[in-house]
Amino acid sequence: MRGSTAGLADTLASGSRAHAALLEAADALFASALVAPAVVTYWKSTWTLMDLYVLPEHQVSSAAACAAFGLCCDFLFCVFQTQLSKHLSPDRGRLTYYVLSRLYTCVAGVACVGAWRGVWNLLNECTGDSARTLLSTTAAATLSLAALRALRNICAAPFAVAVDTPQDYFDVPTMFRTNSRETVLYVLDCVFSVTVVGSLVVFVWRGSWALLDIFLFPDDTVRSCWTSLIVGYALVVVTFALQAPVRWAAARLHGAPRLLLADLYHLISFVATVNVWRGVWGLLDIYFFPESPKLSNWCSHAVSLALLILLNCSNSVLVRGVYIDAEEPAGECVVFPCHYLRLFFHKERTKKRHRRALQAAATASRKSEEASLPLQIPEEKV
């Protein structure tokens, strides 16, 4: 669900400003209205199915089993990402690549949800759900992520859309960016990225969500969920609208002020995100076949995942990798990775340029061949 925009601004910078602004707005609308609800639906249905099927009578054992399965899978996918990229590529057969890569997404998606559910519920069992405890754990986790320069990893859809491209389909950036050839350091880096940074992100989400449960109309679930949804999407609109001025400001700042601005902006986007997720999640529980939880969640799981696969952004359901705060140059550090339509049109423009170049080369080659033919002198009349 996370992502980096390093280099994308220069890559996609073409055409008029009005056209670029229109595509940017379309991407924001696409991420907010289509991708985000689908991703939340996938997570909600998968989480609830685990509630129903994974040791439902033993909450602690269920949480521990999910955490163990999820974290182990996340670790393995992180460690073997280079091998996966090498052996699973379109060069070895497009159909084989497509099937196996989407199977990877299915397994990795379940692992991500399992890891989050396990850590989330174990934290509930260990710390309780009092407002004071929630505030302290959430603040501590937020400050820890900020100190690690990893606060942006709390972001998710609608502020992150992962397009399923073969080039980086299996990429999982690690905290310290170690090379896979440095075996011991690389494995330790993967462990730290998956367990420490990943768990801190869960702490922030769990605390924020639980605080909303406590303070936002706790006695009226329907009103609480609708309020979360409305407030969340209102903040989404405001956050996307502020992107241009914040980007302008970030491009003119350096060092700590720039980092502070980026972190503050990501925190605002997170407040919007957690409200949207909580609203969609709760409303699905209330309105979508509430009397048949198994039917409701199996349908939600299948439809949401199929939709994201067809839209070519199924990796948006995955929580993987560690991205460093303000690692991109200038104002790119506050640009959300929501490049979907812009990437599509950029690819189409690139294809057109390539075709024109080939046609021009073919035309030039024909002219050269014609020019090199010897002139035929007409026979003289006898």
UniProtKB/TrEMBL annotation:
Q: Name one GO biological process term.
A: clustering of voltage-gated calcium channels
Top-level taxon of the source organism: Eukaryota
UniProt keyword annotation of Acyltransferase present: no
Q: Which residue ranges does the record annotate as region Disordered?
A: 362-382
Can the keyword Transmembrane be found in this entry's annotation?
yes
Which UniProt keywords are present, listed alphabetically?
A: Membrane, Transmembrane, Transmembrane helix
What's any one GO cellular component for it?
A: presynaptic membrane
User: Where are the bilayer-spanning segments?
Assistant: 21-40, 60-80, 101-119, 131-151, 184-206, 226-246, 267-289
| Name of this protein | Fuseless
